[in-house]
Design brief:
The structure is a homodimer of 118-residue chains. Chain A has 118 residues and is mostly helical. Chain A is 70% helix and 5% strand. Chain A has helices spanning 2-12, 15-25, 31-35, 42-54, 73-84, 87-117, and strands at residues 58-60, 69-71. A two-stranded antiparallel sheet of chain A has the order 1-2. The longest helix of chain A is centred in the last third of the chain and has 31 residues, at 87-117. At the A-B interface, helix 1, helix 2, helix 5 and helix 6 of A face helix 1, helix 2, helix 5 and helix 6 of B.
């Protein structure tokens, strides 16, 4: 599990690989289709695909001619679940920010009220 | 944003750094406290902390003597949000699995019913 998370997070640390996953999220695609939107060569795309496949994040379909790649979501899900444990921390941060904004709003109201009194 | 995601995912691709974040999720801690559970030297821990700090994932508190580290959740949240877009895919996978299990269950029921008939 730890090893898989290592490979998954490392694979996610490159914009081209994230873009490939975003494309595959819409449906399976061939290497040529995946290479199309990028200004890099097909062998370079193939290298990125190998990293993703080794990390178990994509697989190759059975169509021998097209060899379409598709997303394997389990690794992405494990990574997402690992990050989820921190949700409490950032939600607590938002709660503090909300409280601060409320105080600032109340202060602004009081200042306006005082100005009207004068 | 893309650069931050690169740094965040790269920082997450090491078990020691993930363990440091897990410890800091419970509250701030000094370098000595963070090094304690690991069988590695304090300089090695400091190196990991530098990677996390450079990626904006932790910060150092103002106490000059203790210099406690604490989690900065924004980067983790961005990474989590990036992965969230794939939730639909893995949830669809579970739905397919559920449907398959339902079919298998129905088949098993029919087989049992047929056996009773004999």
């Amino acid at each position: 599990m730890e090893l898989t998370l290592d490979a998954t997070f490392a694979a996610l640390a490159a914009p081209t690989r994230r873009a490939i996953l975003a494309r595959l999220a819409e449906g399976e695609a061939t290497v040529m289709e995946l290479a199309e939107p990028f200004a890099i060569s097909q062998p370079a795309i193939s290298k990125h695909l190998k990293v993703l496949e080794k990390a178990g994040m994509i697989s190759t379909g059975h169509d021998a001619q097209r060899r379409p790649r598709r997303i394997e979501p389990a690794a992405l899900e494990a990574a997402s679940q690992w990050l989820e444990r921190y949700r409490e921390i950032w939600e607590a941060n938002y709660a503090r920010l909300d409280a601060l904004l409320e105080i600032l709003k109340q202060d602004a109201k009081k200042t306006r009220a005082k100005k009207r009194e004068k």
